[in-house]
Design a protein that fits this description.
Blueprint (H helix, E strand, L loop, with lengths): L5 H9 L11 H9 L5 E7 L7 E8 L6 E7 L20 E2 L2 E2 L4 H22 L6 E7 L10 H10 L6 E4 L18 E10 L3 E2 L9 H13 L14 E8 L7 E2 L2 E10 L5 H13 L15 E9 L31 E8 L2
Parallel strand pairs: 3-6, 3-7, 8-14
Antiparallel strand pairs: 1-2, 2-6, 4-5, 8-12, 9-11, 10-12, 13-14
Helix pairs in contact: 1-2, 1-3
The structure holds zinc ion.
């Protein structure tokens, strides 16, 4: 049994350029570290329609019927952006001034390496008398659509009778020092895509047009003007951030036909995603918006809902580790989330 050095294992993982959905060798590196310790490893690839194939790893030590302690994480990373702007290189896994640098060093290859090393040390100390089990659940599309990772892997585990009793998610959540924050759940996340349709026209004759930008500004103001709520015992206040406003209008004298915005809401355990959608509806409705399937004009324009799109998913933040005792369930976090997407459209009645 070779001792696992968490730093060199983290370096080896960083050197695999596993930008979602690429596995890029990460799981092999991890398996090579875990197998000598006595872990059994299962690779599971999943591919939902219209998505990329994603490889995942389930590794378990121990055959006993004692409690199972699991660690969940993802081996994929977000893209590097402009690779030439990196110093040191994003996938070099270099140590500079005592800091391990590279894409995934924080989120979250170091956590995976630390867990493997911790498990190896624990087993070396008391493994043979230890009746419990230790598991690693390592997924590959947390930074992507998050549908070919944790959820199908948990279903596969359940089918095999793999039970979890406690689980730590190794996401980087400590703002200052290691251990200064332990989270017991994850906020919900909901993306909204707002499209406002108006009537195109010349800016010199605005009475013949209907400016969708003006309408959109009022709608966005209605949802950003005041806080959604207050913090709860375990979670900060919910937040709403407009992340994109797009018109694509190259002219200075044309009122465009439509405008688009995207916003993201991170909500705490006061809400479910349905609550959040209702909250949005109320504010948009107050501006004269009505759902798409109501064929009426209100105040010269109408709003339509264009269905909820399940492109992303939401996880109720309330689904926290200490409350969720179901066998085979992960605590809230990682990619076990579902984020319904709302698409809103306002349109002139004329
Ligand atoms: Zn992460």
């Amino acid at each position: 049994m070779g001792a696992i050095d968490p730093v060199s294992l983290a370096q080896a993982l960083i050197r695999c350029p596993s930008v979602t959905p690429a596995e890029a060798g990460t799981l092999g590196v991890l398996e090579q570290a875990l197998r000598p310790v006595g872990f059994k490893c299962w690779r599971q690839a999943f591919q939902a329609p219209d998505t990329a194939r994603v490889e995942n790893l389930y590794a378990r030590w121990g055959e006993g019927d004692g409690a199972c302690f699991a660690f969940a994480g993802h081996a994929d990373v977000v893209p590097v952006g402009d690779a030439a702007a990196w110093q040191p290189e994003p996938f070099a896994g270099e140590i500079r001034d005592g800091h391990l640098c590279g894409r995934g060093a924080a989120d979250m290859k170091s956590a995976i390496a630390c867990f493997a090393a911790a498990a190896e040390r624990f087993i070396a100390r008391r493994g043979r008398n230890f009746s419990g089990r230790i598991a690693l659940i390592i997924t590959g599309d947390e930074e992507g659509p998050s549908i070919n990772g944790t959820k199908p892997l948990l279903a596969w585990m359940k089918q095999r009778g793999e039970r979890l009793d406690a689980c730590v998610v190794g996401e980087p959540t400590n703002p200052e020092a290691l251990g200064d924050m332990v989270k017991i759940g994850r906020r919900g996340s909901l993306n909204g895509r707002l499209t406002v349709h108006g009537v195109q026209g010349h800016s010199a004759y605005p009475h013949l047009a209907d400016n969708p930008i003006h309408r959109m500004i009022r709608m966005l103001d209605a949802i950003t003007g005041e806080p959604m709520d207050e913090a709860t015992e375990h979670f900060q206040a919910s937040t709403l951030q407009v992340v994109s406003v797009d018109v694509g209008n190259p002219a200075t004298n044309v009122i465009p036909a439509s405008a688009r915005a995207v916003f993201n809401i991170r909500f705490n355990d006061r809400h479910t995603s349905d609550d959040v959608k209702r909250w949005l509806c109320q504010r948009f409705d107050a501006l004269g918006a009505i759902p798409e399937n109501v064929p009426a004009s209100v105040g010269g324009y109408w709003v339509r809902w264009v269905a909820v799109d399940d492109e992303e998913a939401e996880l109720a933040a309330r689904q926290t580790a200490h409350r969720d005792q179901h066998a085979g369930q992960l605590p809230a976090g990682n990619d076990a989330r579902t984020r319904p997407m709302i698409r809103l459209v306002t349109r002139d009645a004329a």
